[in-house]
Write a structure and sequence with these properties.
Chain lengths: ~425, ~260
């Protein structure tokens, strides 16, 4: 088997499930994302022998050069053209915990796939080619990460072999990217900017003799330092109603607790309608539970069952009596457009936030910018194009409730639909 | 909430979304561990009675233990079981000399016939990203056009629990509530919930099946794991991939992709 022989995995604790951290890998095309991922899997012995064999066979069928990038690019078109089209997820582990890598495409035309992948991540690794430096998607992806609220960023400066492993070049690129991300409001700690060569394995899993001047962590050690997202303590209750079921004569409102906690006996107020009610009990398969917390999918039965059936429907959100969301029909938000067909003011669209869905139109398109150069294109515009970002004033047909994205992200982020296709995403400030 | 609670909650959320948006919904049940877990999650989502059919695509070549399991549990769980077979292809003698042709005829075509017959707008499937590189690229709500084709070059964006909520006429949506689960998550969950699983997964005479399907195209692996605990222990230490024993993945490098582009699971 020679060099393709997978290293043996040690026996691990099996009674508890280990922590899992999801991070997205972003950056400009050809800066080495797929190779890096392949290298991470290989160096952590996360590739099964039959997969290693497949990669080796694939490389031979192609042009004989073993390439880790093949590990991720499973679509035929991707392998043939050596580009990544869509996001995928793959798993590996270190001594500390399990990881899920979300691979995102680096081409501008696949930005919506990079966004799809990023919205599931807890942290991001931004890859920059040491020789090429900051390129268009480096800027664009960095900016998108800041809009999407991903605050934990690691920067990996790759292909150090192409610049002779020189410290000067590393420092130059490090300063440029740190400054640029700072402009987007993202702080990258100095120790989280790592020099590597993914192809040859320098400083990915183990320190490299080629980088004697570098005294920081390997990439794997830096990954182990990231913390999984945990919601701040005691946020106000937000339980968006997904549906209403009749189960054995009971009226059950179902949904997933977006924030806060809810308990039997608690009084809540439903928004946007503004009606209050008392929870009788919380229903799960097999019985009742006294309290439910953030993230749990539950059913609630109200003391006044008739009220539930008559007055409530999907889109209503059970809220804390003492802390209300913003209720209105005009929203000002940062929106990124993802459709090849530009946005026109006053066209008929749909606004979807949590379980709410209402028709809407855009009244104003302001501060429109190019998402890679961050240049303002004009003050106010009549249209918004794919990959552009703007501050939109949106008027909804009917009231909706939102919170700011910074306080309760689940209630402050939304998508815009045109004819049942998602054409934009946005966050409320 | 621990990891399993989070996975479960996300899956239940997705199942409930699918039920809200699509009147004509069915859950695909292959009698394997993943789709049985999916059926279990459906029971949880609806507090007991699953309000839509469980669809079994039967190639007629499945292990007898699977048929027994199916019949026993569809009764126990009160499922509305629908069994679909491509009778014409079977009558003409179709079997697995060529995997692409056979899987396509007996699984994909049978599914197409069932969709046409019952008018399903959306299907719940138990596929996971970590099963195969192609499945890794999937979305939670993934449209299929009228030819059942998967346009993987232009998939809809999926942000923040907002999913595709309408199928165009003559098309259908594949919903994948287990996409974010890994193989070992499924087993940990099976253990925690004590979900019944067909005996094929447990070792007999030094062999067991890690992935099941038709008798002709599934190979068992060497194993002494005859309980869920031992299977979990085995999983935490093995390096071989789950589907290593599935012949259709191997026929040629892109068989799975071609199958999926034609509408396979």
């Amino acid at each position: 088997m020679g060099k393709w022989e997978s290293k043996k995995v040690g026996k691990e604790k099996i009674d508890t499930m280990r922590e899992n951290l999801k991070f997205v890998v972003v950056g400009h095309v050809d800066h080495g994302k797929s190779t890096l991922i392949g290298r991470l899997l290989y160096d952590t012995a996360s590739l099964p022998p039959d997969k290693m064999e497949e990669v080796r066979r694939m490389s031979e069928e192609a042009d004989g050069v073993p390439e880790f990038a093949f590990v991720m690019d499973h679509l035929e078109e991707e392998r043939r053209n050596r580009i990544t089209i869509d996001t995928a997820q793959i798993f590996f582990k270190t001594g500390r915990r399990d990881y899920t890598i979300i691979d995102a495409p680096g081409h501008k035309q696949f930005l919506k796939n990079m966004i799809t992948g990023s919205t599931q991540a807890e942290a991001a690794v931004l890859l920059v080619d040491a020789q090429e430096g900051l390129r268009e998607q480096t800027h664009r992806h960095g900016y998108m990460l800041s809009i999407l609220g991903i605050k934990q960023i690691m920067v990996v400066i790759n292909k150090m072999d192409l610049v002779g492993y020189q410290q000067e070049r590393f420092t130059e690129v490090k300063e440029a990217i740190t400054r640029r991300l700072g402009e987007f409001g993202l702080t990258v700690p100095s120790e989280m900017v790592i020099p590597i060569c993914a192809r040859l394995g320098d400083n990915v899993a183990s320190a490299s003799g080629n980088l004697p001047w570098y005294e920081g962590m390997t990439m794997l050690a830096a990954l182990d330092k990231l913390t999984p997202t945990s919601a701040p303590q005691s946020r106000p209750l937000r339980l968006p109603i997904q549906d209403i079921y009749q189960i054995d004569g009971e009226t059950v409102l179902v949904g997933r607790v977006a924030s806060g906690t809810i308990a039997g006996g608690q009084e809540v107020i439903f928004h946007p309608s503004g009606k209050s009610a008392t929870v009788d009990y919380i229903k799960v398969f097999g019985g009742k539970i006294p309290q439910a917390q953030e993230g749990q999918s539950i059913g609630i039965v109200l003391k006044n069952a008739a009220f539930a059936l008559k007055a409530l429907k999907r889109g209503e959100t059970a809220c804390d009596m003492a802390a209300s969301p913003t209720i209105g029909n005009t929203i000002v938000a940062t929106v990124f457009w993802m459709s090849g067909v530009p946005l026109q003011k006053a066209e008929n669209l749909d606004f979807k936030c949590a379980t709410q869905q209402v028709p809407c139109t855009v009244k104003k398109i302001a501060n429109r910018i190019n998402s890679s150069s961050l240049e303002r294109i004009q003050g106010d515009a009549n249209e918004l194009r794919e990959t552009e970002v703007a501050q939109l004033t949106i008027k909804t047909d009917g009231y909706i409730c939102t919170d700011s994205f910074d306080s309760i992200p689940e209630m402050g982020r939304f998508v815009i639909m045109r004819d049942n296709d998602t054409v934009a995403g946005g966050v409320v400030h | 909430m621990d990891r399993l609670d989070e996975l479960e909650s996300q899956s239940i959320y997705i199942i409930r979304e699918a039920y809200y948006h699509y009147q004509k919904l069915a859950v695909l049940w292959s009698i394997g561990k993943d789709s049985s877990t999916l059926v279990w999650l459906c029971r949880k989502a609806f507090f007991g009675k699953v309000p839509f059919p469980a669809l079994h695509i039967d190639t007629s070549y499945k292990f007898p233990q699977m048929y027994r399991f199916r019949d026993e549990y569809s009764k126990k769980w009160g499922l509305n079981l629908v069994v679909a077979r491509n009778e014409a292809a079977l009558a003409a003698g179709m079997k697995c000399d060529k995997k692409l042709e056979c899987c396509n005829a007996l699984k994909t075509e049978a599914l197409k016939q069932a969709i046409a017959k019952y008018g399903f707008e959306a299907l719940l499937l138990g596929i996971r990203r970590d099963e195969h590189g192609i499945r890794a690229k999937e979305r939670y709500f993934s449209p299929r056009d009228e030819k059942f084709q998967w346009d993987y070059q232009d998939q809809p964006p999926e942000l923040w629990d907002q999913y595709k909520n309408q199928a165009q006429e003559k098309t259908h949506i594949r919903v994948h509530p287990l996409l974010h689960w890994r193989e070992k998550d499924i087993w940990y969950y099976i253990r925690r919930e004590q979900i019944p699983i067909t005996e094929l997964y447990f070792a007999k005479n030094g062999k067991r099946y890690r992935s099941i399907g038709c008798t002709s195209c599934c190979s068992p692996v060497d194993s002494d794991a005859d309980t869920v605990d031992k299977i979990i222990e085995e999983l935490e230490t093995t390096n071989t991939s789950e589907r290593a024993g599935r012949a259709q993945d191997k026929e040629d490098t892109y068989t799975m992709q071609k199958l999926r582009a034609l509408g396979y699971m």
